[in-house]
Amino acid sequence: MYRILSAFISFAFFVAVATAEPAGEWIDLFDGKSLDGWKAAENPDSWSVQDGQLVTAGPRSHLFYVGEVGGADFKNFELEVEVLTAQYSNSGVYVHTKYQETGWPKQGYEVQVCNTHRPSAKHKERKRTGSLYGVRNVYKTAATDGEPFRMRIRVVGKRIQTWVNDCPMVDYIEPTGCQVSGAFSRRLSSGTIALQGHDPDSRVAYRYVRIRMLPDDADANLDDRASDAGYGLKPGLIDGIHKATIPFIDYHVHLRGGMSVEKAMDRQAVTGINVGVLKNIGNDWPIETNEQLEEFLDSTAGKPLFVGLQVNDRDWHRQHAPELLARLDFVLGDTMIMAMPDDDGETQRLWMEDQYEIKNPEAWMKRYVKHNLRVLSEPITILANPTYLPNSIKDRYDELWTDDRMRQVIQAAIDNNVALEINASSEWPHDRFIEMAKQMGATFSFGSNNFNDKPIDMTRCFEAINRYGLKKGDFYIPEP
Question: What would the mean pLDDT of 307-313 be, rounded to a whole number?
Answer without folding.
Answer: 96
